[in-house]
């Protein structure tokens, strides 16, 4: 804030299920990336307030063929980040395949390929602990009822010290069904402190729940519990899972998320202290803070994860992710600036059809029952980044030289329902400016406004995102920006916030139809 304080959220975009560690004077954070690639974002800070995006730890999701098509709410769930034996380690649960880990000597890598620590359905939110006092290694995880029929439990295991596997079948160490009023315990982070094993884990759902703490003298329990952070009289609904970190000066801090619908899960920083009876107290006596003095750390210049991109040489920044594992030929390198996307057909040869991406409550996720064809939710070659959690204006320039009738490209706001604005080559050879949308249950795209000519095959595309996810779509084809169609309200997926995306498509059933060029992508307050 410029006066020694900060305002929450410190990461005002969808960095879901954050975990944080300190290595020397550096703080690192990772978050869920679900079905997008590259996955496992890596953020860096020196003051816990100003964060930059350093890259990703996961180049491609495994199994690679399964993630060759969009799996919006599947994939990487709730990772844990740890530093042990001179290496960085990230464990995460894929609800359909099991618990994975990758590791690297430092934040810049190289990161290992994903290693399957434990195979199984519904194994989520794993966190390792290397106990320096005993030399033992442990792992705790939660359960997704949609895959396993189990929820509201935390299971503990002994783990191989090298993190490659588990040494037992596991034991339920926290059973939420036995704690009056507690439900959907998940997202555990395990620590050693003051002679206790500590598990910080939320409960009660992401929208209206609370953050709990559990402690025991032995890793396998018995544990006692306490609520250590809840909404109270604040506007921070369901303050949910995150990680604890201690500064060199001995200050304790807790980073957690708040679920904000189409904006996803934004990240808050809370002060943390220890009560007289040895329990953590997070925020202002257990309620989230809005504005608070910064951590006692060296001053840092203002910083935030990058959003803008000029696409030098045809490349793109680390803020961008594909919505499926990428394949060669989706982009082209070149000598100048601008992102060249191939106009590829929406059908993906050999790709699997729909998949059950149910969430923990068993409700169908946004990907269930979706089909290929003109439905952008099922097209893998869309390059996306997070929708900012604040009112903002998004702009990008587009040129459509592709000559095949039906070739189209644009800027999309992608979620359970979506809308896009862009250019399309008509059957008579003209290039048209089009505004189209897809309803949540719709089977076909529909025009949000009548098409109009774009004589030079160029347009400046704009989305004006206001409060509550309400967005206006505009375009300039040489005669100034003009809005078209009604206001569109952004929609999240089940677990993922809405995404901004750039895409290019050839007509269904056709081969590639040339390429389009995007330049000067900008997001402004």
UniProtKB/TrEMBL annotation:
One of its GO terms (biological process) is carbohydrate metabolic process. Coiled coil: none annotated. Residues 377-523 form the Beta-xylosidase C-terminal Concanavalin A-like domain. Gene3D superfamilies: 2.60.120.200, Glycosyl hydrolase domain, family 43 (2.115.10.20). InterPro entries: ConA-like_dom_sf, GH43_C2, Glyco_hydro_43, Glyco_hydro_beta-prop_sf, Glycosyl_Hydrlase_43. Keywords: Glycosidase, Hydrolase. The keyword Hydrolase applies. This is Glycosyl hydrolase 43 family protein.
């Amino acid at each position: 804030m410029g006066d020694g304080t900060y305002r929450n959220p410190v990461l005002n975009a969808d960095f879901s299920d954050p975990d944080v560690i300190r290595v020397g004077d550096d703080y690192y954070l990772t978050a869920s990336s679900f079905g997008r690639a590259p996955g496992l974002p890596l953020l860096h800070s020196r003051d816990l307030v100003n964060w930059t995006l350093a890259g990703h730890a996961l180049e491609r999701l495994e199994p690679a063929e399964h993630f060759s098509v969009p799996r919006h709410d599947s994939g990487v769930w709730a990772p844990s980040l740890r530093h042990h034996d001179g290496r960085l380690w990230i464990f995460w649960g894929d609800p359909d395949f099991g618990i994975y880990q990758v590791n690297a000597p430092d934040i810049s890598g190289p990161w290992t390929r994903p290693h399957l620590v434990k195979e199984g359905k519904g194994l989520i939110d794993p966190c390792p602990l290397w106990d320096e006092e005993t030399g033992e290694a442990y792992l705790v995880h939660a359960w997704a009822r949609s895959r396993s029929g189990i929820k509201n439990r935390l299971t503990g295991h002994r783990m191989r010290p090298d993190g490659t596997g588990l040494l037992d079948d596991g034991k339920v160490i926290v059973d939420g069904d036995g704690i009056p009023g507690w439900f959907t315990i998940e997202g555990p982070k395990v620590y050693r402190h003051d002679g206790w094993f500590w598990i910080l884990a939320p409960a009660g759902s992401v929208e209206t729940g609370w953050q709990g703490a559990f402690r025991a003298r032995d890793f396998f329990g018995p544990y006692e519990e306490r609520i250590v952070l809840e909404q109270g009289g604040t506007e921070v609904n369901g303050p949910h899972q995150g990680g604890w970190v201690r500064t060199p000066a001995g200050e304790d801090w807790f980073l957690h998320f708040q679920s904000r619908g189409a904006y996803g899960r934004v990240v808050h920083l809370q002060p943390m202290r220890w009560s007289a009876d040895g329990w953590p107290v997070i925020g202002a006596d257990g309620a989230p803070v809005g504005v608070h003095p910064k951590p006692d750390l060296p001053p840092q210049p203002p910083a935030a994860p990058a959003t803008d991109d000029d696409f030098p040489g045809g490349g793109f920044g680390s803020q961008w992710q594909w919505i499926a594992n990428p394949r060669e030929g989706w982009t082209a390198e070149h000598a100048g600036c601008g992102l060249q996307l191939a106009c590829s057909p929406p059908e993906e040869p050999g790709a699997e059809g729909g998949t059950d991406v149910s969430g923990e409550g068993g409700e169908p996720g946004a990907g269930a029952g979706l089909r290929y064809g003109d439905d952008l939710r099922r097209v893998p070659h869309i390059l996306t980044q997070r929708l900012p959690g604040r009112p903002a204006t998004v702009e990008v320039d587009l040129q459509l030289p592709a000559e095949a009738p039906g070739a189209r490209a644009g800027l999309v706001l992608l979620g359970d329902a979506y809308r896009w604005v862009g250019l399309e080559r008509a059957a008579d050879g003209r290039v048209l400016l089009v505004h189209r949308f897809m309803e949540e249950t719709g089977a076909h795209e529909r025009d949000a406004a009548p098409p109009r000519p774009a004589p030079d095959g160029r347009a400046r595309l704009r989305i004006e995102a206001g409060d509550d996810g309400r967005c206006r779509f505009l375009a300039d084809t040489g005669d100034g920006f003009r809005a078209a169609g009604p206001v569109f309200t952004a929609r999240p997926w089940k677990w993922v916030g809405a995404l901004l995306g750039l895409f290019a498509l050839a007509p269904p059933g056709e081969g590639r139809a040339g390429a389009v060029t995007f330049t000067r992508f900008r997001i402004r307050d």
